[in-house]
Design a protein that fits this description.
Number of strands: 0
Number of domains: 2
Radius of gyration: 28 Å
Helix content: over 70%
Distance between the termini: 54 Å
Length: about 425
């Protein structure tokens, strides 16, 4: 008969089993995300659109406009603005497309010139770099046909994904709120429902604040870049400023790509002179001011993230999903930080990712509403719970109300089945 395991051994075995299952789950999610890029990425962009645009739909609903019509108007406005911007960018794009062969040739020549200069012995090097002779066979080879094919394939995938994201965002704006209410109502305990509402409220507020603030900052950076390029005599500065603003949604790497783009523009415009380097240098100074002073001041400490994990998220999601993953990296990291902050036992990971709120369960913590079931709550916890219920109503406690009281029979203010967002009776039921 084999010897019986001790309690410590059983506990260790369960811990090893949980860790193994967690690793397997993470690997499975990563593989599924990589394989299902065409499905997962449009869903995530649709969620971001629905989160950012839902306040506009609710305002229209309060004015008596049905959600289906209000969501259609909002999305149609976005499509119209995007189409107008693309239409206005056709001529500037055609100009820079015609300059692309020249830019590639200048780049090949200068790379070969620098390589030939460094390959010579110091005594045989000419006095100036421009005096180095370059032959055609010395220039690096660039497969422009393969690059064009990949760009066209990526453009087709982007158009299909954008259309799918808009359709999904429409249905999320129309019926997403009811689906969230029904999903939270299925949770067994009142504490779980309270945590779910808190998670949804924090994700909505932090993502909305982040995306709105960063969009305004990037628009300002693009406008200043366009103004500087116009002053420097560069053709089509508005298009280049718009590209810089879009690339700046990717932290760190976006600024490097923008600087490289402006370096190529400088080579095409001014040739191999110091003036060509002034464009990326001036942009990097402008970006340094934006990233070190403007963004921290406007965003504050609520969505502060550790730069190391931001870079890791960009590398991981960018490697899995390309440019779409790099754009989604920071919103996904914000959602992960909020999740860790609300789950008991995981708050340390929230602080590692950049969490600066009080620890979970402390008297000053907004998460203290979930600590300790059945104990008497402090006044800070009560006010915190009341503020959450004002943001988004909580389902009633099954011990104090029948399951048929929620959902009810009368929709009010867009809430499904009679749940009113600011109903005192509903808040007191929790």
């Amino acid at each position: 008969m084999p010897p019986l395991r001790t309690r410590d051994e059983a506990t260790h075995s369960r811990r090893v089993m949980r860790r193994s299952l967690t690793i397997l789950a993470v690997v499975s999610v990563v593989v599924a995300a990589a394989v299902g890029k065409a499905v997962v990425v449009p869903i995530l962009f649709a969620l971001l659109l629905a989160i950012v645009l839902s306040p506009l739909v609710r305002v229209a609903q309060r004015a008596g406009i049905p959600p289906a019509f209000g969501a259609a108007v909002v999305l149609a406005g976005i499509v119209g603005l995007t189409g107008g911007a693309l239409s206005a960018a056709i001529d500037p794009l055609a100009y820079w497309a015609s300059k692309t062969p020249e830019a590639i040739e200048v780049w090949r020549t200068e790379v070969a010139r620098i390589r030939n200069y460094l390959s010579r012995e110091p005594a045989r090097r000419p006095a100036a770099l421009k005096d180095v002779r370059v032959r055609e066979r010395d220039k690096p080879v660039i497969e422009t046909g393969a690059i064009t094919t990949r760009l066209l394939s990526g453009l087709r995938s982007t158009v299909i994904g954008a259309g799918a994201a808009l359709i999904l965002a429409y249905f999320m704006l129309v019926a997403g709120r009811s689906a969230v209410f029904s999903a939270v109502a299925m949770l067994r305990t009142h504490r779980a429902r309270r945590l779910a509402w808190r998670w949804a409220s924090d994700v909505r507020k932090d993502l909305t604040r982040y995306l709105t603030t960063v969009s305004i900052i990037n628009a300002g950076l693009g406008a200043l870049t366009a103004a500087g390029l116009w002053w420097a005599g560069v053709r089509e500065p508005l298009l280049l400023g718009a590209i810089v603003a879009f690339l700046n949604f990717v932290p760190f790497l976006g600024a490097l790509f923008s600087a490289a783009l402006l370096a190529v523009v400088g080579l095409v415009t001014y040739g191999t002179t110091l003036m060509s380097l002034s464009l990326p240098a001036a942009f990097l100074v402008l970006h340094l001011i934006e990233s070190q002073f403007v963004t921290p001041t406007l965003l504050g400490r609520a969505v502060t993230l550790n730069p190391l994990f931001v870079m890791l998220a960009i590398v991981v999601f960018g490697g899995i999903w390309g440019l779409s993953g790099a754009l989604l990296a920071v919103p996904l990291l914000i959602a992960a930080k909020i999740t860790f902050a609300l789950v008991p036992g995981w708050t340390g990971w929230a602080r590692v990712l950049g969490e600066r709120r009080p620890p979970y369960g402390s008297r000053d913590s907004p998460n203290s509403l979930a600590s300790g079931s059945g104990s008497r709550r402090s006044s800070a916890e009560t006010s915190s719970a009341a503020s959450i219920e004002n943001v988004m109503p909580l389902p009633p406690n099954p011990s104090t109300a029948s399951t048929r009281s929620w959902p009810g029979n009368r929709p009010i203010d867009g809430s499904p089945d009679g749940v009113t967002p600011n109903d005192p009776a509903q808040a007191s039921a929790g």
